[in-house]
Amino acid sequence: MSRRRKPTKKEHTMAEKKPVKTGAKPAGRSGVGKTSKGFTAEEREAMRERTREMKAARSGADGEAEVLAKIAAMPEPDRAMATRLHAIIKASAPSLSARTWYGMPAYTKNDKVVCFFRPGHKFKDRYATFGFNDTAKLDDGAMWPTAFALKQLTAAEEARIAALVKKAVG
């Protein structure tokens, strides 16, 4: 009676390897002429804006003028909110510098974005957003808000934003 021998580890792993496929890719798989499904057109435009902003910063462009031009180009009601927010931020924290950030108005301290305004039309949202980055000193326990949806600005919202901006700058 003959016994079958057990394959060695090398023989076992070699048998499991799949053959290498060669030849051309199937038609339509080259990616040519296809758009990325990862980013929307608006997101790709924001990335292009960021590249332009970085080049402008190296050339010493005036950030305040760029922000005011971006605000002027916004459709209503985003333009009215951005204009009012710009005034509130400049009055509440004169130490912040205005510049654009991904094509949106932003306010910086030591070249780091503290707060920003994202118009609703930019990404086809139903509301605008006023937000803070991690450089803002808003820490309050283990959890705190960093962005706020804006449908309109009333005196109550303006007062709250002014207080948050003052706190964010520290």
TrEMBL record:
Positions of region (Disordered): 1-61
SUPFAM superfamilies: YdhG-like
Composition skew (Basic and acidic residues), residue ranges: 10-19, 40-56
Protein name: Uncharacterized protein
